[in-house]
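ok new one. same drill as before - structure tokens go in, u give me an amino acid for every spot. 105 of them this time. try not to just spam alanines like last time pls lmao
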């Protein structure tokens, strides 16, 4: 019997920046959940200050959720307009593996 190769489910990611320092990953997950099923939200923290770094990655379970979020003209949380764009490269994100990440499997 041949070994079966298992591939992780694909995640469709946004890169979000200009996040107000008071926002949490839970609040970001809840906000972006209106566009589709959020599989994960990774909000990296600065070990020296204890505050998050002001950017995150939001992973949707489907392309549709990602597209719905991108179609909205502006995303405003805590009175601050977030900068939202499609994640292009995973090389930068790999530096923050498991740091502030919440997996929604």
């Amino acid at each position: 019997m041949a070994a079966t190769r298992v591939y992780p489910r694909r995640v469709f990611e946004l890169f979000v920046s200009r996040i107000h320092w008071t926002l949490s990953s839970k609040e970001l997950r809840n906000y972006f959940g209106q566009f589709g099923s959020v599989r994960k939200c990774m909000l990296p923290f600065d070990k020296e200050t204890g505050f998050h770094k002001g950017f995150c990655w939001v992973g949707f379970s489907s392309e549709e959720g990602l597209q719905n979020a991108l179609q909205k003209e502006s995303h405003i949380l805590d009175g601050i307009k977030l900068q939202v764009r499609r994640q292009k490269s995973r090389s930068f994100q790999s530096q923050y593996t498991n740091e502030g990440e919440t997996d929604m499997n």
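The beta strands are 12-17, 38-42, 55-60, 75-77, 80-86, 101-103. and btw The longest strand covers residues 80-86.
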